[in-house]
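Protocol step 4 of 6: structure prediction from sequence.
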Amino acid sequence: MCKTKRFIMSIFLCVILMMFFDSSTTTLTTTEFPKEFDFRYTSYQELEQNFNIFQHDDIVGYDVQLTVDNARNQLLVGGRGMLCRLSLDDLRILEITEWQALNDTKRICRFKGQTEDACYNFIRVLLVYEDQVFTCGTNAFSPKCTWRSIRIIHVIIISIIIIIIIIVLVIIIIVKIELIIKYINKFLKILKN
């Protein structure tokens, strides 16, 4: 019974307050808290003063690959036709190297109907393994991968194309050796008879 009385009293009080305050004349004004006093807001100018910024003409849009190499305290960056190593401490450039698609490859890419802007070597893979980095690029829609030295990224350790060629050559040699052994066995059988 007591709860019911409280409920009725609260409804009655709400009705009286609504009648007393006409909603058409009452306005609620809000003022924004000044951003210079709001710790959650940081202006670009403040960021620019307190942080190191790395910019390069071949780092455009979202066509960038980043890999952190904690062991050597560096950041690997792959952009449009370029690879670079930056210091993690201050984004100081340690090394920049170009990895452009060949002009013939670009020409074929455009011939296939791609735009000139799409016919670059956009770096898509940067994987660190021990003291090497595996890098892959679009190479104007003719993908190409290489192993590079992690300390000197302009040095290509071995190209994946070379690996494939070596594997094919080894298979050919093995097949040839098997054929030679087969013919030698036939020749030996003929000599025995």
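Step 5 (inspection) to follow. The chain is about 35% helix and 25% strand.
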